[in-house]
Amino acid sequence: MTKWKLNSWRDKPVKHIPNYNDKEQLNNILKELSSFPPLVFAGETRSLLKNLADVSQGKAFLLQGGDCAESFAEFHPNNIRDFFKIILQMSLVLTVSSNLPVIKVGRIAGQFSKPRSSPTEIKNNIELPSYLGDNINGSEFTNESRKLDPNRLLKAYSQSASTLNLLRAFSQGGFADLNKVHLWNMSFINVNAKNKFKEIEDKVSDSLAFMEACGITSETNRRLRTVNFYTSHEALLLPVEEVMTRIDSTTGEYHNTSAHFLWIGDRTRQLEGGHVEYCKGIKNPIGIKCGPTSDPKEIIKLTEILNPDNDAGKITLIARLGHDKVKSKLPKLIKEIKKAGRNIIWSCDPMHGNTIKSSTGFKTRPFDNILKEVKEFFDVHQAEGTFGGGLHIEMTGQNVTECTGGAQNITDKDLSSRYHTHCDPRLNANQAIELAFLISEEIKKNSHFSKNKIKFAS
Ligand code: PEP
Ligand code: CO
Question: Whose CA is nearest to atom 8 of ligand 1?
């Protein structure tokens, strides 16, 4: 076996990494990036690993969500604020009804590059290179826009840095204070979700009043006024991941400093491939997307390569099987992982196996199928004596019309009205909150959590 090096992935076959024409320009920009400050710090990543170790034991729940692909066009402080509000609201729903702390991880501040099913796209008999994410080329269907432009990497770094700066301010600067829960509301949330959320707000207010009477306030207790918020993206564009990987001076270990958590996509998880090779050497927690073609033996091998010491919290298996395949595929995967004694977190991505084309020509996801996948995921875990520890979703705080169904009853015809995604369709704010309520119920039903004496609020 050859020794891992920061660039040893370059000797392996890699998929979904674009071939830039101007290598010199690319290398100059990579060099520039390599001198830029880290976006996240090794100590924060270690805290996340500890939090994830709790998740792996059923003592916390992992909520991971955000855009399929961040874009330069949607970059706006209000969008970041609204995304953060929904994450806070979903977390509160989950915590209040299931009594589990929620570990919040955004697909944000670096989630740009995309693997595509085809290298080219054909429209009206014109064939152009596919859109690969705003840090690589543009989504507009023109020759100019689809050219690979390394300068975009600098813009993506800058957008990530300012996004993260605002998120840090929101999470630490008072916005996340539980006394401000009423400020997280959004005007377009439908009446049903609003009423249900109001009940949660009332419970929180009662608890805060009780604690205040005992002398515990958000002024005296930091935990009531701040939250920890972590970032993540797919470890896809390895040349950039490489230059953002730095040695932590306190331990001498390699950390990817462009996000706390990285995941390997369903299309790039080959045992001998460059993506697995790169992730093998970094200390960050790693997610592995498991689609319907996942061979349990291969997934076990991956967990061994990426986590040879079998540390709790290091690996999250993100099942994205599709609502019609959970029952046939998940039990075997769970059984084999259990038999092999691998320490992992089971997270459910109910988005990527449920993408269809609407009758009006849009890529969409029916909300009912998303709910069905989540429900079956939890049911299978209950039947296998294991538990679902996380949710991985594509969502936005905006009132978009990208996934059909939900309480607003979005139809195929409605999709064109506010369809803004640059890649896959996202849950809108209403749908995301509805999903959080459903998951709370599923968590409460699972005997693992009740066996562990986690007391549920009524
Ligand atoms: C994604 O998460 O956006 C993605 C491309 O997922 P997957 O690798 O599961 O297809
Ligand atoms: Co996606």
Answer: 265
For residue 425 and ligand 1, the question of a CB distance below 6 A is answered with no
Bridge-based pairing of strands 229-234 and 261-264 is parallel
- For residue 16 and ligand 1, the question of a CB distance below 6 A is answered with no
Q: Per-residue pLDDT for the chain (458 aa), expressed as one digit of tens each? A: 679 999 999 999 999 999 999 999 999 999 999 999 999 999 999 999 999 999 999 999 999 999 999 999 999 999 999 999 999 999 999 998 888 999 999 999 999 999 999 999 999 999 999 999 999 999 999 999 999 999 999 999 999 999 999 999 999 988 888 888 888 877 777 888 888 888 888 888 888 888 888 888 888 888 888 899 999 999 999 999 999 999 999 999 999 999 999 999 999 999 999 999 999 999 999 999 999 999 999 999 999 999 999 999 999 999 999 999 999 999 999 999 999 999 999 999 999 999 999 999 999 999 999 999 999 999 999 999 999 999 999 999 999 999 999 999 999 999 999 999 999 999 999 999 999 999 998 888 887 776 654 544 43
Phi/psi of residue 349, each to 5°?
-105, 100
Atom of ligand 1 nearest to the CA of 115: 5
Domains within the chain, CATH numbers bracketed: 28-113+153-176+226-452 (3.20.20.70)
In 68-192, DSSP assigns E strands to 102-107, 120-123, 126-129
CA nearest neighbour of 271 among 239, 317, 303: 303
Which pTM does this prediction carry?
A: 0.96
Compute the residue count for the chain: 458
Task: Please work out whether the CB of residue 132 comes within 6 Å of at least one atom of ligand 1.
Answer: no
Lookup: tokens for 371: 């709910």
Q: Give the per-residue SS3 of 282-351.
A: CCCCEEEEECCCCCHHHHHHHHHHHCCCCCCCCEEEEECCCCCCHHHHHHHHHHHHHHHCCCCEEEECCC
What's the 394 CA to ligand 1 centre distance in angstroms?
Answer: 10
CB 384 within 8 A of CB 333: no
Tell me, in angstroms, the distance from the centre of ligand 1 to residue 172's CA: 30
